[in-house]
Specification:
With 204 residues, the protein is α/β, with parallel strands linked by helices. Helix content is 55%, strand content 8%. It has two domains: 130 residues, Rossmann fold (3-Layer(aba) Sandwich); 59 residues, Arc Repressor Mutant, subunit A.
Length: 204
C-alpha cells in the first residue's frame, strides 16, 4: 500500500506521465485494465488473489499492446525468466527503484527491455550459454529450486503436508508456503496439474 502510494506520487509528479489507476490485488487490476486504456502497467510478482505472473498472462490476452514492468523484491532469476517469458518488458528490483525507475520506464517506452543491473549480468551469462548451445532456452528452464523439486516429488507421491514436513525436517507451514510458491511459479491451479508436471519432469 505504501509502495503503491509512493509510486503514484512520484509518477504523478512527472509531466510526461499520467497515473490513470491503481489496484490493490490482481483481480482488481484485471478489472481496471478492462475498463481503461493504459500504455504501461507496473505490477509486483506477489499480489493478493491473482499472482503477478498469472496477471501478465491475463493482461497479454486482454491487451497485448500494453507494456508491463515488474517491480519486485524477488531476486531469484527464475522469477525474472518467468516474467519475461510471460511477456513482461521489464524487471526492476525494488531496491533499485529509487535510482532506476524512470530509466526502466523510458527504455520500455522506446520498445526495449529493461532488467535491473543486479540481475542483468546473470541474464547475459545465461544468454551466452544458450547461444553456445550449452544452456536451455528460458521456456525450458526448470524454475523450481532443489527444495521445491523435493516438495513436488513428495506431493506427487501422495504425501500430506505433515508427512512432507517430517521427511524434510521442516514445518508443515513451510511446506504449504513451498506449495503456494510452486503453484505460482508454474502457473498451475490444481494439484492434479502438479502431479502431471512432476511426471513430465521425471521427478517420479
Amino acid at each position: 500500500m505504501l509502495v503503491r502510494q509512493g509510486l503514484k506520487r512520484i509518477l504523478g509528479g512527472t509531466k510526461d506521465l499520467e497515473v490513470i489507476g491503481e489496484a490493490g490485488d490482481g483481480l482488481e487490476l484485471l478489472d481496471l485494465v478492462n475498463h481503461s486504456d493504459p500504455d504501461m502497467i507496473i505490477l509486483d510478482v506477489s499480489m493478493p488473489k491473482l499472482r503477478g505472473i498469472e496477471a501478465i498472462h491475463e493482461i497479454r490476452t486482454m491487451r497485448p499492446e500494453v507494456s508491463i514492468l515488474m517491480l519486485t523484491m524477488h531476486k531469484d532469476k527464475e522469477y525474472l525468466y518467468l516474467a519475461l517469458s510471460a511477456g513482461a518488458k521489464g524487471y526492476l528490483l525494488k531496491e533499485d527503484a529509487d535510482r532506476d525507475l524512470f530509466s526502466a520506464i523510458q527504455r520500455i517506452r522506446q520498445g526495449k527491455t529493461y532488467v535491473s543491473p543486479n540481475l542483468s549480468e546473470e541474464l547475459f551469462d545465461d544468454l551466452v550459454q544458450i547461444g553456445k548451445g550449452e544452456g536451455k532456452p528460458f521456456s525450458e528452464i526448470d524454475p523450481l529450486t532443489t527444495r521445491e523439486r523435493e516438495v513436488v516429488k513428495l506431493i506427487a507421491e501422495g504425501k500430506s503436508s505433515k508427512e512432507i514436513a517430517d521427511l524434510l525436517s521442516i514445518s508443515a507451514r513451510t511446506v504449504d508456503s513451498h506449495r503456494a510458491n510452486i503453484m505460482e511459479k508454474l502457473n498451475l491451479k490444481k494439484a492434479a496439474d502438479l502431479v502431471k508436471y512432476a511426471i513430465q519432469k521425471g521427478y517420479i
